Structure prediction request, 484 residues.
Amino acid sequence: MKCPRVLHVASEMAPLVKLGGLGDVVGSLPAALREVGVDARIVLPAYPGLFERLEAQNLSCAPTGKSVHVALDWRVYSAPLWETSVNNTPVYLLEQPELFSDPEVYPRETTPLATLPFAFLSLAALEIPGALEWTPDIFHVHDWPGALVPAALKWHRHYRNRRGDYETVLTIHNLAHQWITTPNALNIWGFVKESFTIEGIEFYGGINALKGGILAADAITTVSPRYAWEIQTPQGGMGLDGVLASCRGKIQGILNGLDYTVWNPETDPLLPAPYSIEDLSGKTLCRKALLQACGWEENDRPLLVFVGRLVEQKGVDILLAAMEDLLSLGTRVLILGSGHPIYERVLQEESRRYQDLLHVHAGYDETLAHLLYAGGDMLLMPSLFEPCGLSQLIALRYGTVPLVRAVGGLADTIIDVDGSPDGNGFLFSDYTPHELRRVVERALSHWHDREQWKIIVRHGMEQDFSWKHSAETYKALYLRLLGN
Ligand code: ADP
Prediction:
């Protein structure tokens, strides 16, 4: 059987650049694929500060001596290719400081010029086979930043001639971001004007790059089976449900895995004390350290933690509306997140109101995140929608019981304690503060029975959400595409 050669085209990759779950996935899936016999590699932009980060992490990086050249916006942009290896996975870095100049990574607006760096990323990826000795069979692209790879193989005046050379897989990590822009983008990218149709990349008079990618890709995956179905419904389709439903034959939901070399309380160097299912005493020490970090005394109230982006998707609205109720039930709430300035501000104000009960850390802090997962008692994830969600998987492994809304990957991974002897968490359905309060109430009724709580914790910690199974499923998909 052939070993598929797969180039992942991505805008994030932990630990080099991570803004959310996409970074975690690209940081761990290719390595897991290599373990099951796929020659997976990655191409990533060299954002400002990335070379310094490589050095700080003792990762060597060398020029390949080769460059890629891409025509965009009526000029040629070149990028020397660098090569490094992360988790035994080759990573090609595109050095193009003129385009990749924003340390924030993603532009605030989606005009063709503001998003030019990501048009470059996709077209530069298509130039890699000509520049290096190594040629992929498959381009596996992630979300909108890679969507122009399949689209260009169908509609770019030059790359469409190479369509037969490669298969393409598009993974949708989050349909909320689609790269909607103005029609002059086609000219800037070099797309043929026949692409500007309802069966093509056109979208309500503008351009939707993700829609183009969806229609042109040979296979589409989403990060959980439930999300694969949700995005084909008007409630979850973000305006693309019709397009996605018309492609249902090539859509498959494959649950994300978790990298247990990073997320393991037995070996986690960021924790003040390690612990395991057999011996949870370290978790108690982590709890103490967490209380101390908040300037709080122990008072036996259960700690409800939230780690995530402070955006509408994560359910911050109902969390805020339910806050007073949750605290009045006898809990303490700890929030770590960055995102919308209004949410950050309101949460900070609330934390001043409930000083001893609510702690808010606005910002991105990897070390504190680990401490919250370890020191917390329950994880709150009241998401409006959740393609897969990694936080609940991390919480399970760290013995912190997830309380989640039954959507997307949350519904695929959490089994309600009140519905099964194998329960690992608590679910609620309606997106209301009232339902959030009720799920916390239900969880608390179990929390007070400490012996039973230990069983719930144990169920979560014992589960295996590693990449092994998902990597095999991706490999089977690659082999199918290649006709094996
Ligand atoms: P999403 O991809 O929608 O942001 P996920 O649950 O899939 O959500 O993944 C989020 C990842 O980012 C997790 O690893 C989580 O711990 C991490 N994370 C989110 N916000 C922060 C933060 N403020 N500080 C540290 N880590 C964070």
Remarks:
- The mean pLDDT is 97.
- The CA atoms of residues 416 and 426 lie 5 Å apart.
- The pocket of adenosine-5'-diphosphate is lined by residues 20-22, 24, 307-309, 336-338, 364-366, 369, 388-391 (CB under 6 Å).
